[in-house]
């Protein structure tokens, strides 16, 4: 998911006394969902997937998909914003049952018990609407803006495998706001980053910017359980996720948060986007 901000653990709902962790460790508890069993989901704050709205409520693409999917299975999800660098320890000690927060499966396939994938996470490139840049080849002599330590920075700096050309200049900014400001002031020709972030520039630009059709990197997003645990739940959840994809539910949710459902929803068991 790229670099993230960590936060204090935030409980969306307070369970009845005695509840320490979720479905994998306390089989007899019930919650506000009636007969549904609780499942504790660790999340990061990453808009539009998992974040807090103006009233402090957890919301987002993943929140809606997780709630719908787990309700189908008879579980009531309880979302906790966790210190992201502690996610594996929290999984291991049972404090959370799974991670569901735009979490990429790529390169981590053997690290967890997965359900999914259910979405593609895309890196995208934005230019001014009147720019002559149409594809990767047109980037060669351009000045590019990226946020430091992100996947987009690695791709343009070629510290990871990349199909991008070597550009004239890569400018690494500390914040998204700085990167957007440089684009608005014409200091750079191109910006690149996660689709969720770059869409903010597009949305607020009133038609001044557009995305290139090509994506420099696409990863698959899934639900991560501790390896060797929750096998049955993960398998059932994967089945429900496929159903929600096929019946259009995931696409509808994604579109409500400004994502292009045709490009981000995983359909079927295809290995390639």
TrEMBL record:
Residues 38-261 form the Solute-binding protein family 3/N-terminal domain. Keywords: Signal. SUPFAM superfamilies: Periplasmic binding protein-like II. Gene3D superfamilies: Periplasmic binding protein-like II. It comes from the Bacteria. InterPro entries: Solute-binding_3/MltF_N (IPR001638). Pfam families: SBP_bac_3. This is Transporter substrate-binding domain-containing protein.
